[in-house]
Write a structure and sequence with these properties.
single chain, alpha+beta, Nuclear Transport Factor 2, Chain: A, 8-stranded mixed sheet, about 25% helix
């Protein structure tokens, strides 16, 4: 059984084991509501994507307004696992109109309370 959350296809049972803020990340990711998306992150959060690090919500907002808004894509989560206290690794694939059309990715989240404190996105 697969659930479709606004462009995110994933086995529902897998996402039941991750915190709500991680689920909301994938729910909001395909939408262009930058402020709701940035609100998922702690004020001093760190995001690393495409080898670049963005620290704090101002830099995360700039990152979110960058490459992610140029393309339309869907995300299929294939696995979710707990790495340790407040750390979660999700793996999956993006499919869209960006160069190459598909990308296998890993999203490593660290959660503090109800917010994301660290996110590393890598192949």
């Amino acid at each position: 059984m697969r659930a479709d959350w606004g462009g995110v296809d994933s086995p529902a049972v897998m996402l039941d084991d991750v915190p709500g803020v991680v689920r909301r990340y994938f729910e909001l990711d395909p939408h262009r509501d930058v402020e709701r998306f940035v609100a998922l992150f702690a004020d001093d959060a760190i995001v690393t994507d495409e080898g670049e690090t963005h620290q704090g919500t101002a830099e995360i907002r700039t990152w979110r307004n960058g490459p992610a808004t140029k393309y339309h894509y869907t995300t299929e989560i294939s696995n979710a696992e707990t790495l340790g206290a407040a750390r979660y690794l999700l793996t999956g694939r993006l499919t869209g109109d960006f160069p190459g059309g598909t990308a296998a990715l890993r999203w490593e989240f660290t959660v503090s309370g109800e917010l994301i404190s660290r996110l590393v996105i890598a192949p």
